[in-house]
Amino acid sequence: MADGSDRYDAVNVGQMQNGVNYAIDQSKAYTDQQITNINNGTSGMFQVNNTENLANPSATGANSAAGGVGSSAAGANATALGNGSQAQADNSVALGAGSVASRANTVSVGSAGAERAITNVADGSQAADAVNVRQLQASQQGTLRYDTNVNGTTNLNSVTLGSTATGPTTVRNVAAGTAGTDAVNVDQLKSGMSQTLDWSKAYTDERFNGFDRDLRKTENRASAGIASAMAVAALPQSTEAGRNMASVAAGSFNGESGIAVGISGVSEGGRWIYKFSGSTNSRGDGGVSVGAGIQW
C-alpha cells in the first residue's frame, strides 16, 4: 500500500510507526523541558549539589518526608528538609541544614548552639500567630519591667512605674496588704491615717489632761502654802521682858487652809527676842521656822 497523502487517505504501517515515534519524541522533548533531571549543578525547580557519595535521606515515620543528604524524618507526619536535618518527633518540621525538631508539633530552623533568626515576619493578627520584634517592642512599652543594674543585668528587687517624661503611674484594684512588706491601697492609707490621728488626739488629750491635773494640783498646793504662811504670820509675838508666849493661828486662801503654832519670848533684860513656829495645811504639807533678834 502506498503512503497516504491526503488527510482522509489510508496509511500503511510504516507511516503509522513514523507517526508514533514522532509523537514520542515530541512528548519526551516537552517533558524534558518541563522537568529537568536533578544532577549536580543543573538548574530546575529543585536542585541539589552533592560532590560526594553521601547518605540518602530517610523517611521512616508514617506519612513523613525527608529531603537532603543524611536528612531523617523519623516521627509520624514529620518533615525534614536540609542536609543532616532531623525531624524526630511526631508532626514536627526541621527546616535547614543541621536543624533538629525533637518536640512534637514544633517547627525548628536550627539546633542547640546553631540557632537561626527568622526574618521578614509579618505582624501577627490572630491568637496563634507569631509576633515580630516590632510588635514585641510595642507591647513592652506598656509592660511592667524590672529595673536594670549598672552592669546591664536585671534588678529583681526594683520596679519603676512610669517615667519623668510621662508622669507617675496609677496602680488600680490593689488588694489590702496583710504582710509587713505588702503594698497598701488608699483605703488602708486613709484608715491608718485616721487611726493615727485618733491615737495622736487621744494621747495629746491625755497629756493635756494630765498637765492640767498637775497644774491644778500645783496650784492647790501653792494655795495651801500661802494659807500656811498667812497662819505663821498671824502668830502673836511676846513683847515683855522675861516673858514667853505660846500661840496658835490659822489662815485660808483660794479654798485651801493652814494652821500654825508658835513659841516666842523676850530675855530678862529685854535685849534678846526669839521665836519658833510650825505649820501644816490642807494638802498635808508642813513647815517649821525659827528666828532670833537683838535690840538695843
TrEMBL record:
<dbReference type="GO" id="GO:0009279">
    <property type="term" value="C:cell outer membrane"/>
</dbReference>
<dbReference type="InterPro" id="IPR045584">
    <property type="entry name" value="Pilin-like"/>
</dbReference>
<keyword id="KW-0812">Transmembrane</keyword>
<keyword id="KW-0998">Cell outer membrane</keyword>
<feature type="domain" description="Trimeric autotransporter adhesin YadA-like stalk">
    <location>
        <begin position="118"/>
        <end position="155"/>
    </location>
</feature>
<feature type="domain" description="Trimeric autotransporter adhesin YadA-like stalk">
    <location>
        <begin position="173"/>
        <end position="196"/>
    </location>
</feature>
<keyword id="KW-0653">Protein transport</keyword>
<dbReference type="InterPro" id="IPR011049">
    <property type="entry name" value="Serralysin-like_metalloprot_C"/>
</dbReference>
<keyword id="KW-1134">Transmembrane beta strand</keyword>
<keyword id="KW-0732">Signal</keyword>
<dbReference type="Pfam" id="PF05662">
    <property type="entry name" value="YadA_stalk"/>
</dbReference>
<dbReference type="GO" id="GO:0009986">
    <property type="term" value="C:cell surface"/>
</dbReference>
<feature type="domain" description="Trimeric autotransporter adhesin YadA-like C-terminal membrane anchor">
    <location>
        <begin position="236"/>
        <end position="296"/>
    </location>
</feature>
<dbReference type="InterPro" id="IPR005594">
    <property type="entry name" value="YadA_C"/>
</dbReference>
<keyword id="KW-0472">Membrane</keyword>
<protein>
    <submittedName>
        <fullName>Autotransporter adhesin UpaG</fullName>
    </submittedName>
</protein>
<keyword id="KW-0813">Transport</keyword>
<comment type="similarity">
    <text>Belongs to the autotransporter-2 (AT-2) (TC 1.B.40) family.</text>
</comment>
<dbReference type="InterPro" id="IPR008635">
    <property type="entry name" value="Coiled_stalk_dom"/>
</dbReference>
<dbReference type="GO" id="GO:0015031">
    <property type="term" value="P:protein transport"/>
</dbReference>
<dbReference type="Pfam" id="PF03895">
    <property type="entry name" value="YadA_anchor"/>
</dbReference>
